[in-house]
Amino acid sequence: VITTISLRIKISNLRATMNTISVESFIAGFAYGGTTVLVGQPFETLKTLAQVSSSSISAGTPSLLQSARNLYQTGGLKAFYRGGVPLLMGGGLMRSAQFGVYSSVVKTLEQRYGPTDPNAYYFGCINAHVVIAGFFGGIGRGVVEGPFEMVKVRRQVVSGWKFAEVFQGFGATLFRNSFLFSSFVIYMDILKQQLIQRDLELPPFLKAGICANLAWFSVWPLDVVKTRRQSGKYDGKSLIWLLRDSFKTGDMYRGLGAGMLRSLFANGVSMEVYVLVEKKLKQEFEHE
Question: Pick from 23, 185, 20: which is nearest to 108 by CA?
């Protein structure tokens, strides 16, 4: 009898855990990540090359079009996709972790404390549950992304690397991602509130594109530092030193143009895919 009761309790706990973990969000996040790489890698490569080039050592800053022309002349179309394989391998996993952890934390917080009262929103529009879940979602992404991102950067700047170096810049990646994804979901939630109040609707492409650009702009100096930390061209320089140097030289928003274009198109298209996959999976799970 005791064994039967114990088994029932374990099954009940397992069901409760599965209800907390958002399986469809993990799978849809994987689709989001793969799409992001396919759509945005050319802009990503141009962004990385701009970020690792310091204003203090380069004569002038080439335009985005000039950089694209130079890259094509030296390596052809495939040069734009340098470093794409590591991101394609890890992109689905890191976005899966990002959205999956976020959705799971939101569910856990709501089950424990109940939905947040809109009257308790900070500044009338910021949901504390979204902030916390976004922060953890960013950490979840960073844990997976760190090694893949380092290899991607080294491939883009045509610099060698050793397996022992795959965690170089790992702390910078975690730091950037925690603020990046929390900013993204905060902007998405605020936009959602504004659209509901005005009885308006926007396609996922525009919602994700607008909020992703706002999030990237908010943390761009951290991305510049992360890229330089992983490039192998600033060995021995700490995160704080690189951050101070980027402000001193005016490089804190270097590569922003390419990054905003990548963010708009890659995240916009990927969100369309995410919404479609998540919707289909929810329908399938409901029928089971």
Answer: 20
Residue indicated by tokens 């908010």 = 218
- Round to whole Å and give the CA distance between 258 and 43: 5
What tokens were used for 79?
Answer: 């040069």
CA distance linking residue 84 with residue 38, whole number of Å: 8
Quickly tell me which residue has 């394609």 as its tokens. 88
pTM: 0.80
CB distance 179 to 219 below 8 Å: yes
pLDDT, residue 58, reads 53
Q: Token pair of 263, please?
A: 């963010």
Instruction: Compute, in degrees rounded to 10, the torsion defined by CA atoms 265, 180, 32, 227.
Output: 80
pLDDT at 20: 47
The one-letter code for the residue type at 1 is: V
What pLDDT digit, counting tens, does each position of 51-94 carry?
A: 998 776 555 667 888 989 999 999 999 999 998 888 877 777 88
